[in-house]
Amino acid sequence: MSVQFKEEEGGKLLVVNVSGKLEKADYLNLVPEFDRLFKEHGKLRILFDMSGFHGWELGALWQDIKFDIQHFSEIEKIAMVGETKWEMGMSLFCQPFTVATIRYFDQANLKSAREWLIAA
């Protein structure tokens, strides 16, 4: 599994790139980084790039649900960028777990996803 993340736009945008299968250990890095950015900047916008993403291991899925519940109101917008129909469906599945506006973009529209996130 590979999870890479970086902050952009002065810390208001968290870019998360995932490939392979998410493992429980991946959340040990992601959660503290998210918490730090939220404490410094308030509500965040997330670009979740799922190019090459193949889902979660069971323990990671539980960590993802816990993360969603704990950070329900701390995310303003999420752009989910992917390559497959199940990834588009995942953007619909995630909506009840957040008050964030969620929008799916095909990989070819990565630039549009970024522009949507940074727009007011």
UniProtKB/TrEMBL annotation:
Provenance organism: Telmatocola sphagniphila
Name this protein carries in UniProt: STAS/SEC14 domain-containing protein
Lineage, highest ranks first: Bacteria, Pseudomonadati, Planctomycetota, Planctomycetia, Gemmatales
